[in-house]
Design brief:
6 helices, 270 residues
């Protein structure tokens, strides 16, 4: 199936649920706006996408206090279906429709897949509560939407590895969004959009396709530039202290070096 054919399938499904999705997003926009849609693609295609995912041995391992996961973003190293799927989400018509659902204007895709691509999480993998980096790789546009498409068959909420959003801050309870097979989640990213991924509890790999959209304007007037900012959970007091210090150090470095001391490798070098 071609990239254009996949984007047409995405458009068709979104159009079918457009008004419901607009309502869902609007009802949550004052906190962390998001919507999700199930059965995004035909089941056979979603299964094929999952089967084409690289193994964790073929991906980049990230393990530290902030996170434990595997990522893949140099898309020409993997099956072409995966690249076509990712760039189907970057199709201008798809971007325009999702932007309309979210009530946004002048939203752009990212051909560099900066911090996007494929994510794989196995048993005991996790992603601590965090705010995404506020900008694109060149600090010219604001990151405004995060698209997460889950493709692991038979994944249940009991397996862990679920998306968590914290609409009332980290001192209040989180909202869990199941990483359900063939589900697309679209959420805002701004200075208050804390989110995380719960620890994977099953001996399996949770697979996700990730995209970001950007804009010339931030979503909140109060938004300022920030690096990816991690925090500990309420039960992780010592870890939270170290993560706060880590954020302060990295933020100070970015004040001195606008694009960092080195180029972030998490981007697609075509």
């Amino acid at each position: 199936m071609t990239r254009d054919e996949i984007s047409e399938l995405i458009l068709l499904k979104l159009m079918q649920k457009k008004e419901v999705l607009k309502h869902d997003f609007k009802s949550r926009r004052k906190e962390i706006g998001y919507f999700f849609i199930d059965d995004l693609l035909p089941e056979e295609l979603a299964l094929e996408i999952h089967n084409k995912f690289p193994t964790t041995d073929e991906a980049v391992r990230k393990k530290n206090l902030r996170e434990f996961k595997f990522t893949a973003y140099q898309m020409d190293q993997y099956d072409s279906l995966l690249e076509d799927l990712i760039y189907a989400f970057q199709d201008e018509k798809v971007i325009q429709l999702i932007s309309e659902i979210c009530g946004l204007k002048e939203v752009y895709g990212d051909e560099n897949l900066y911090a996007g691509g494929l994510s794989l999480m196995g048993k005991d993998n996790f992603l601590n509560p965090h705010l995404d980096n506020s900008h694109d790789k060149d600090r010219e546009r604001w990151r405004v939407l995060n698209l997460l498409y889950y493709v692991t068959p038979n994944w249940t909420i009991e397996n862990g590895g679920n998306l968590e959003v914290w609409p009332n801050g980290l001192k209040q309870a989180q909202t869990t969004i199941e990483s359900k097979f063939n589900r697309l989640v679209v959420m805002t990213t701004h200075q208050k959009s804390w989110h995380s991924v719960s620890k994977v509890l099953k001996e399996d790999i949770r697979c996700c396709v990730s995209n970001y959209y950007f804009s010339k304007q931030p979503l909140l007037e109060s938004d300022t530039f920030h690096v990816t900012t991690f925090r500990g959970r309420s039960s992780e007091k010592v870890k939270d202290l170290f993560l706060r210090l880590d954020t302060t150090l990295r933020s100070n470095i970015r004040k001195l070096f606008k694009k960092g001391m080195r180029e972030n490798p998490h981007q697609y070098k075509k």
